[in-house]
Amino acid sequence: MAGREGGDGVGEADGPTRRLSDLDEDELLAQVVPRFAAASGPTPLMLLGPGDDAAVLAAPGGSVVATTDTMVRGRDWRDDWSGPGDVGAKVVAQNLADVAAMGARPTGILVTLVADPGTEVAWVLAFTDAVARACADAGVAVLGGDLSSAGPGTLTVSVTALGDLEGRDPVRRSGARPGDVVAVAGTLGLSDAGWRLLREGRPEADPEAVAVHRRPRPPLTLGPAAAVAGATAMLDVSDGLLRDGGRIGRAGGVVLDLDPAPLAGDVARLAPALGEQDARRAVVEGGEEHSLLATFPTDTTLPEGFRTIGRVRPAGVDGPGVTVAGVHAHGGGWDHFRP
């Protein structure tokens, strides 16, 4: 089928397909837990890993950042677009990006799987392998998790991610001040472009965009770097540049005024596959990119990997939020409860 991810999927079995209903919980865990351990191994902060009622993780900085995010089949992914490897990589990426956006270093995750007993065991193991690899690449420990069954067709995965502030204060959404520069680290619009191309049945028009939609690439190390550099506000672009920029603006009672000029390259990158208008919408409205959007004092030397895309202004008659070239902008982006 056009658009189906080629690797880390569920291949054809030589014998009868094994399903979760063919195993008990202990038998499944006996296959899952060693995969996590083999990929990531022990990390310096994991004092006690899976096997007891809870894991133990050191917090050298004295403060722990915690976040959680969930993906539901049919709502957050489609099986004909994304294989289990994609789902595993994405659910880790989006959670670790939230930790990095607070200025923290990700240290560990907990994984939950809620599945129809008819789910293939091979899907679960491919998902497990992808989670393990993503954590190993980020230097993050898999601390444990939970399993539960659900009704026919249900498949939900959830990750809780933890991070260490390393003695720093968290970078919140509410700290932007007039005169600050607005900067972004990472790509803009690629994930949304990939989603559009999959929906249109044209994934071959931009394979990189499709790959980023399936497996986002958040710049995790730049979250702590931004904090060290003095970032005044930060979040990850999960729901679109306008929607997330508006959140920073409203939290701080200011306006994030975006400059179209630095975004022109992002639009030009996507225009051959999408056309100019949809490329522009993808850049300013597209979600699931998980790049980092931050504000910095005007005299700050931005960490390498960040680029300036605007300026923080005082709120005007339209109130706090986001503008593009001085024009108030709103809407677009992802909303879980709207079609």
TrEMBL record:
<keyword id="KW-0784">Thiamine biosynthesis</keyword>
<dbReference type="GO" id="GO:0009229">
    <property type="term" value="P:thiamine diphosphate biosynthetic process"/>
</dbReference>
<comment type="pathway">
    <text>Cofactor biosynthesis; thiamine diphosphate biosynthesis; thiamine diphosphate from thiamine phosphate: step 1/1.</text>
</comment>
<feature type="region of interest" description="Disordered">
    <location>
        <begin position="1"/>
        <end position="22"/>
    </location>
</feature>
<feature type="binding site">
    <location>
        <position position="98"/>
    </location>
    <ligand>
        <name>Mg(2+) 3</name>
    </ligand>
</feature>
<feature type="binding site">
    <location>
        <position position="53"/>
    </location>
    <ligand>
        <name>Mg(2+) 3</name>
    </ligand>
</feature>
<dbReference type="Pfam" id="PF00586">
    <property type="entry name" value="AIRS"/>
</dbReference>
<comment type="similarity">
    <text>Belongs to the thiamine-monophosphate kinase family.</text>
</comment>
<keyword id="KW-0479">Metal-binding</keyword>
<feature type="binding site">
    <location>
        <position position="238"/>
    </location>
    <ligand>
        <name>ATP</name>
    </ligand>
</feature>
<dbReference type="InterPro" id="IPR036921">
    <property type="entry name" value="PurM-like_N_sf"/>
</dbReference>
<feature type="binding site">
    <location>
        <position position="69"/>
    </location>
    <ligand>
        <name>Mg(2+) 2</name>
    </ligand>
</feature>
<feature type="binding site">
    <location>
        <position position="236"/>
    </location>
    <ligand>
        <name>Mg(2+) 3</name>
    </ligand>
</feature>
<keyword id="KW-0460">Magnesium</keyword>
<feature type="domain" description="PurM-like N-terminal">
    <location>
        <begin position="51"/>
        <end position="163"/>
    </location>
</feature>
<protein>
    <recommendedName>
        <fullName>Thiamine-monophosphate kinase</fullName>
        <ecNumber>2.7.4.16</ecNumber>
    </recommendedName>
</protein>
<feature type="binding site">
    <location>
        <begin position="145"/>
        <end position="146"/>
    </location>
    <ligand>
        <name>ATP</name>
    </ligand>
</feature>
<feature type="binding site">
    <location>
        <position position="146"/>
    </location>
    <ligand>
        <name>Mg(2+) 1</name>
    </ligand>
</feature>
<feature type="binding site">
    <location>
        <position position="98"/>
    </location>
    <ligand>
        <name>Mg(2+) 2</name>
    </ligand>
</feature>
<feature type="binding site">
    <location>
        <position position="68"/>
    </location>
    <ligand>
        <name>Mg(2+) 1</name>
    </ligand>
</feature>
<feature type="binding site">
    <location>
        <position position="288"/>
    </location>
    <ligand>
        <name>substrate</name>
    </ligand>
</feature>
<dbReference type="GO" id="GO:0005524">
    <property type="term" value="F:ATP binding"/>
</dbReference>
<feature type="binding site">
    <location>
        <position position="69"/>
    </location>
    <ligand>
        <name>Mg(2+) 1</name>
    </ligand>
</feature>
<feature type="binding site">
    <location>
        <position position="53"/>
    </location>
    <ligand>
        <name>Mg(2+) 4</name>
    </ligand>
</feature>
<keyword id="KW-0547">Nucleotide-binding</keyword>
<dbReference type="InterPro" id="IPR036676">
    <property type="entry name" value="PurM-like_C_sf"/>
</dbReference>
<feature type="binding site">
    <location>
        <position position="76"/>
    </location>
    <ligand>
        <name>substrate</name>
    </ligand>
</feature>
<feature type="binding site">
    <location>
        <position position="239"/>
    </location>
    <ligand>
        <name>Mg(2+) 5</name>
    </ligand>
</feature>
<keyword id="KW-0808">Transferase</keyword>
<comment type="function">
    <text>Catalyzes the ATP-dependent phosphorylation of thiamine-monophosphate (TMP) to form thiamine-pyrophosphate (TPP), the active form of vitamin B1.</text>
</comment>
<dbReference type="InterPro" id="IPR006283">
    <property type="entry name" value="ThiL-like"/>
</dbReference>
<keyword id="KW-0418">Kinase</keyword>
<dbReference type="GO" id="GO:0009228">
    <property type="term" value="P:thiamine biosynthetic process"/>
</dbReference>
<feature type="binding site">
    <location>
        <position position="334"/>
    </location>
    <ligand>
        <name>substrate</name>
    </ligand>
</feature>
<dbReference type="InterPro" id="IPR016188">
    <property type="entry name" value="PurM-like_N"/>
</dbReference>
<dbReference type="GO" id="GO:0000287">
    <property type="term" value="F:magnesium ion binding"/>
</dbReference>
<feature type="binding site">
    <location>
        <position position="67"/>
    </location>
    <ligand>
        <name>Mg(2+) 4</name>
    </ligand>
</feature>
<dbReference type="GO" id="GO:0009030">
    <property type="term" value="F:thiamine-phosphate kinase activity"/>
</dbReference>
<feature type="binding site">
    <location>
        <position position="98"/>
    </location>
    <ligand>
        <name>Mg(2+) 4</name>
    </ligand>
</feature>
<keyword id="KW-0067">ATP-binding</keyword>
<feature type="binding site">
    <location>
        <position position="173"/>
    </location>
    <ligand>
        <name>ATP</name>
    </ligand>
</feature>
